[in-house]
User: What shape does this take?
Amino acid sequence: MILIPYGLGSMVYATVERTYVNLHFCSIKSLPKVDWSNCYLVHDLHNVNLSGANFSGLVAKNVEFYNVNLVNASLKNASLAGIDFAFSNLAGADLRGANLRGADFYHANLAGADLRGADLAGARFPSTNLHGANLEGVNLSGDSLQVANLSEANLKNADLSGAELLDADFSGADLSGASMKDADLTGGILANANLENADVKGLDYSGVDLSCHGHPICNK
Assistant: This one.
């Protein structure tokens, strides 16, 4: 991984991809509330505190965000495809419009995060905390969310078709208008969830707590 010495942060990036010729390198300096908006990140971030940082418009490729504190950080419209966020804390983070295709959030904390408009194709959320997250209208079709905590999450009109939801917790979640078509929710929880107008055709809900409301499959 290339490390750019601090002080070269304004260097114009013009060699790796034509798309990013107007971006400058992010400086190595990593502090809470640092401003890395619209810059190109080329180094890994491990075990650092970047709470409240501004990463809006950031472009990062082939790097890791491992066990990073990103509480209340702004990653709005950032390009983070394929990034590994394992064990990172993104509680309350703004991820609206971010490119998170193929990103891995293994054991990450996204409680209260805003992911509306984010590209989540092929993203992985195993054992991820998404409690209270705003996922309204997002496309999670075919994604992996095994053992994820989606309690109290806003999943109104979200697409969860074909998703892997084994043992996922949707307690109190708003799934109104959502598609769970052909998803696998074996062993999951739908207690107090709102399934009004949800599409559950082909949903495997074997062993699921169905004390939900708003849909014929609910036994509440």
